[in-house]
Amino acid sequence: MQDIFLGQDGTFIFESTKKEFELVQGLDTRFKNKDINSEVYDFVGLVCKKDKTLVVFPKHYYSNNLLKENEKDNNSSEQDVHLLFDVIQKYIFNRKSTATKFAGEKLDFESDYPFASFFSVYNYFKQFGIYNERITKTKVGYKGKISWKDTIRKSHKIYSNGNLIHLPLYIKENKSKQVFISDCMAFVIDYTLERFPFLFQLAKTNHKKTTFDFLENIDFVIRKLQEYKNQVFKDINKRLISDLINYFTEIEGHKKGGDIHVKIKYFNLVWEEMIGHYLNNHFSHIDNDNNLYFETENINSKVRFSKKTFQVDKSINNFTIEPDHYFIDDDLQYIFDAKYYDVLDHLNYKQYSYHEMLKSNKDENKTISALIIPSDNENTSEIHFSLADSYVKEGTSSTTIISQKLKTKDVMISYLNSNLNL
């Protein structure tokens, strides 16, 4: 049974937890507001140490009270751990990255367990079951099933007392290779699911267990798999064996059950992608009081947001601006930006400049500008900035920037259920 410790990006970390999981200040933690008495988590992900696991959730996944309650009850947080891990895996897959050291441009993703190889092996299992391609090889011998076709074709013909004798005999050999590859595949799947029972909701293979110790004989396993790879015919099976080889090559350092890290340093990029899916699935409209509305049952918004680049500079520098989530139609221009912040406690100058450069002087082309931040409570809209009347130039509209809170957990669930290609 795993003991699960819970944390949350940006929240206080106890010194005992820091020491228990060997977290490093400046890498895994930081001082909030440069106060050395307020050290907080500075990553999202998991750190596993044999029978203990630390799970650090994104900002505002839990309220402070709920976080404390769940720290006392492992079972209450199990589904949340599944959700977090699934979101990380989907982001990596969408970015066409592998779970090695980095995943996605400028996204510091650390994983020292071969999850990418595991998922490739498991996908094969889902499609085809346990490996069962028969590999037949003949050899000279006298014990085993005789391959008469090869014996007649290859052996010498000897006549003795009026009888035709073929020598030597050729024996079929196939069982050991088929069973070995199948056992390797079952080990990779079942060992991973047993090692991380709190991460996956996947079925084990139910393959007969072998007494062979794969982790103590990794060099032998890799050598045999490389040998068998040259004897299979189908590309899909060659790929399976390649994935098995990669798995055993990468797990070498953790065969004794050493620490496993699955950490994302810059979750703001994940938040940005998730918000893109959420807007394009659920955004409905804005009312006259600057409240944003979302239809959570809707899975395809009529407003299609995307990242857009504007050439706003005519100097030799040719500077551009690039709003995260942009859409314009005949009446409205939306400039939304995903902000992975604890709070919005200072003027967001970048969003203000975007609004000023892109807004139209025509009244019929109203610009809606919003900053979207995580929340552990209900979705709410409020005014982040409203330009004072004395600063509004004649003939132009006032600049208003909305602060929109979205529940972190809802955004993550929507992201997993989204089929959009952004």
Automatic annotation (TrEMBL):
Please name the top-level EC class of this enzyme: hydrolase
Q: What EC number is given for this enzyme?
A: 3.1.21.-
Presence of the UniProt keyword Nuclease in the record:
yes
InterPro entries documented for this protein: Restrct_endonuc_II_LlaJI (IPR018579)
Q: Which GO terms describe its molecular function?
A: endonuclease activity; hydrolase activity
Keywords annotated in UniProt: Endonuclease, Hydrolase, Nuclease
Designated name of the protein: LlaJI family restriction endonuclease
Q: Which organism is it from?
A: Flavobacterium sedimenticola
